[in-house]
Amino acid sequence: MAEFLTTNGTSYHIEKIITGANKKLILVSPYLQISKTFYERLLDASKRNVSIKIIYGKDELKPNEKNSLAELKNLELLYFENLHAKCYFNEQEMVITSMNMYEFSEKNNREMGVFVTRNNDKNLFDNAVNETLSIIQSSEIIQLSKTKRKLFQPKTKNSNGINKKAKPKRGYCIRCEERIEYDVEKPYCWDCFATWSQFENPEYEENVCHSCGEFESTSMIKPECYECYKENK
Fold first, then answer.
1. Over the Cα atoms of the chain, what is R_g?
2. What 3-state class would DSSP assign to 93?
3. Highest mean pLDDT range out of 14-28, 51-65, 92-106, 194-208?
């Protein structure tokens, strides 16, 4: 029998669906910004040779997200423009929910969902699978390849005439990757800063290096990866 889920229950069961997948895993989410925990679970599933399909439909993926997804073998990424459904399932378990696979939603939104199993809710489960397969057939396959982004940093001479790398003039918001002015004191774009300032936790973990834009564990007080910190100090 279907089980009603709140936000926490939805996140829990999505994680459980990923960890419990043996052969196939399908994730349907219009908006896509995978949290660190979910990404680690997907990496584990990839190492188990699970076939993973992710269907999304809103916004172009950030370079970091594409790079991260490119690390997952056996992943097929698909785009369906009119997608609004959110559904996550493996061979036996499924969550149908209002929640996108979007880190902000997991942490800030009030969501609802239902958890169903093939054994106890076969008709509902099969109908949802068939609808998802129909969406997949109409979706565009997105090719993924890992790219390394390097900011151009011209060399300048210090007062002793020694060549030294200039600090980058442009950086990345450590939450959403938007290009912003390079300033380690202000590593957020305006929108993300407005969200961060509601709690003002300087150690709150983000996912992007302010300098190089790569996927790294950062925060307001440590906005750069170690390599960029060494280069720019």
1. 20
2. strand
3. 14-28
- For 229, the enclosing helix (H) or strand (E) is helix 226-232
Residue 116, classified by CB atoms within 10 Å of its CB into exposed (0-12), middle (13-18) or buried (19+), is buried
Question: ∠ at Cα 72 (69, 76), nearest 5°?
Answer: 75
Task: Pinpoint the residues of the chain covered by CATH 3.30.870.10.
Answer: 3-142
Residues near 208 by Cβ (< 8 Å), separated by ≥ 6? Answer: 64, 172, 173, 174, 175, 176, 177, 214, 215, 216, 218
Q: Are 61 and 85 in contact (CB under 8 A)?
A: no
pLDDT in tens, 44-70: 999 999 999 999 998 778 777 888 899
CB 52 within 8 A of CB 74: yes
Q: What tens digit of pLDDT does each residue of 114-141 get?
A: 999 999 999 999 999 999 999 999 999 9
pLDDT tier at 151, thresholds 50, 70, 90? very low
Q: How far apart are CA 161 and CA 194, in angstroms?
A: 42
Beta strands 140-142; 163-165: pairing state: unpaired
Instruction: Give the span between the Cα atoms of 115 and 185, in whole angstroms.
Output: 44
Yes or no: domain 3-142 corresponds to CATH 3.30.870.10: yes
